[in-house]
Amino acid sequence: MLLNQVCAIVDLETTGTNANSERITEVGALLIDVDHSEYSFQQLLNPGISIPPYVASLTGIHNEMVADQPGFEDIATELWGLLNDCVFIAHNARFDYSFLKRAFKHCGYSFRPKIICTLKLARALFPHWQRYSLAAIMEQINGSAGVRHRAMADVLATREFLDYAIAEHGLARVNACAQQQLGKPSLPTHLDAGVPDSLPDSPGVYYFFGEQGQLLYVGKSKTIRTRVKSHFSADVREPREMRMAQEVHSIDYRTTAGELGALLMENLEIKQRQPIYNRRLRPLKKLWCIFLQHQQTLNTLQVKQLDATQSFPAVSYGVYSSRNATNKHLRKLAEEHGLCKKVMGLEHGKGACFAYQLGKCNGVCIGKEDPSLHNERLLDALQQTRIEAWPFAGDVLICEHNTSLGITDAHRVSNWAYLGSWRWEGLVTQGELIASLDNVESMDSAQRLACNDQPGFDKDGYRLLYRALVEKVFDGLSVVPLNPTTEETAN
């Protein structure tokens, strides 16, 4: 058999296509040993959920048919023992593997076999064929007409194709193509196999495009080539990622000098271009923020609405999309930390707050708790959402230098808002960079990498910039303040 190893040709029938929410209704497997001895396994399964009518009409497997059949958990031990040490062979193998991996995991088994996809084998060995579904292949090779969309029938059809391929090309050639799958990412059939290897192993942002040129996904990495290949790994993690990977028709990329630039550009591109498979977020134009009012004894809270382009007047706690969202968070903090809702501005009027009457407030609102104790709990509750005041007098350039690529990228930031990036060829020193600022908005010696058309405070961008400027988690950064003198020169 293939690769001189024990092989298992497998096919599943399921209640749908999503391995996270759908279940297996039938398993078919044919094990072929190196001595050519064979063992077959076939079992209908009760999926534990209803089989949709359209699936029942396609497979012939309906609810009554599986009502008295075992569940996957009942056969998991036997099946795992059969398949675990075999080369896993299936037509469109990512589909069958994703279902089995999830089902085995639910039963406490780790299933990570070597995987061979016969659809990819067919494309590699018979590039002149027009279609590569199992039914189309059977027509092409004048194969047997089995019961389509039943597990064992499709297993036997897959076996028939392998026998045909070996007869046409020889076992050595088929083995070579199979080995190539084991050593390379499982690329979608319509993506040129050389594309991933042509990508740079340097920091940057990459873009996946669909058949009609639609932007599917934007990602970032310190090593673009390695990260892109991981999307096409045969070890499928999520059905959504599997669907996205199989829709990719072309890939583009933009290198950056370092990790911070890649992170900033990714965040900007996702929010501006709204790719289909990224989490879809829009930057806020109006923000609701919480400010701590330091009083002589008892500290209170004030909620203000700010424009996203405004400078934060002081340290704030949290950025929210509405007053309702702000109050919801404050109520949650009050309940979790035993805080007074009157002090937090959530209740008004004279006397004790309602929570005190329920025994959930210590009575700071009526003088029964030391204000300093309430102040301490309030500050502790707010710390997790703390937004620091902008630590500079004006805008800054955060510079990244990449010695291997011989480039310098500068990212302009104002009040925690990312404005854009420029690139210089060569390792530009801080003094040289300041001297080159004839006009910050159109630097003659620099290439414009990114431009934020709607700059303003962005919570995700804030976290990145705080890590860079305050926590200093990124290596090799230098910060150039654009003080008033520099700004006058620049303008």
Question: Which secondary structure elements does this structure contain, and how are they paired or packed?
Answer:
Elements: E1 7-14, E2 24-32, E3 38-44, H1 53-59, H2 63-66, H3 72-83, E4 87-90, H4 93-106, E5 114-117, H5 118-125, H6 134-140, H7 151-169, H8 171-183, H9 195-198, E6 204-209, E7 215-221, H10 224-231, H11 239-247, E8 250-255, H12 259-273, E9 286-293, E10 300-307, E11 316-317, E12 319-320, H13 323-337, H14 354-357, H15 371-382, E13 386-387, E14 396-402, E15 407-414, E16 417-425, H16 430-435, E17 447-451, H17 459-471, E18 477-481, H18 484-490
Helix pairs in contact: 5-8, 7-8, 12-17
Describe the structure.
With 491 residues, the protein is of the alpha+beta class. It has 4 domains: 2-183, Nucleotidyltransferase, domain 5, CATH 3.30.420.10; 195-273, GIY-YIG endonuclease (3-Layer(aba) Sandwich); 316-387, no CATH class; 396-490, no CATH class. 36% of the residues lie in helices and 22% in strands. The protein has 18 helices and 18 strands. It has helices at residues 53-59, 63-66, 72-83, 93-106, 118-125, 134-140, 151-169, 171-183, 195-198, 224-231, 239-247, 259-273, 323-337, 354-357, 371-382, 430-435, 459-471, 484-490; strands at residues 7-14, 24-32, 38-44, 87-90, 114-117, 204-209, 215-221, 250-255, 286-293, 300-307, 316-317, 319-320, 386-387, 396-402, 407-414, 417-425, 447-451, 477-481. The strands form 5 sheets. Strands 3-2-1-4-5 form a 5-stranded mixed β-sheet, sandwiched between helices. Strands 17-16-15-14-18 form a 5-stranded antiparallel β-sheet, with helices on one face. Strand 2 and strand 3 form a beta hairpin. Helix 7 packs across helix 8 (171-183). Mean pLDDT is 87; it is low at 438-442 and 484-491.
